[in-house]
Amino acid sequence: MENHEVLLTREFNAPRELVFKVWTEAEHFCKWWGPKGFTLEIHKMDARPGGGFLGCQKSPDGMSIWGKFVYLEVNAPEKLVFIQSFSDEEGNIVRAPFNPNWPLEIINILTFAEEDGKTTVTFSGGPVNASEEEMAAFEAMKPMVKQGFDGTFEQLDQYLASQQ
């Protein structure tokens, strides 16, 4: 996965416990996760190893996109690891609506480090069990993936500011 991963680091002006909490509790997560302008309706969020997330993002024009996570590691407040997929409303994995070759599973690994009341989140992620076509699709979209997470992290930054 190393050469096919996205790596981002972002510092937030908030304590690590709070930053971890807003990643793992539905009432917070739904307020900032996803592309700008989208809303997130959470149907299930059980942030523990083996637990899952199921949610529906709605675009400003009303398009619904379902997604799911399977949590592999939840080590509060230091580390969070989950597999992310597009899904239907029952949580069955489906192909991405924007690219038939998008990987079915993406691993996301987040670490949270606090210094002087600020938290640095290091995010890395990439395809799991992917075909060559899926790896190529992910590689081609990496700049857009990074741009999307930059926007999501901007929303997280604003949300954290409102929580202190």
UniProtKB/TrEMBL annotation:
Please provide an example of a Pfam family that matches this protein in its UniProt record: AHSA1
Top-level division of the source organism's lineage: Bacteria
Q: Where is the Activator of Hsp90 ATPase homologue 1/2-like C-terminal domain?
A: 13-160
Matching entries from InterPro entries are given as: ASHA1/2-like_C (IPR013538), START-like_dom_sf (IPR023393)
Q: Which residues form a coiled coil?
A: none
**Family statement drawn from the similarity comment of this UniProt entry:** Belongs to the AHA1 family.
Name it: SRPBCC domain-containing protein
Q: Which organism is it from?
A: Cohnella boryungensis
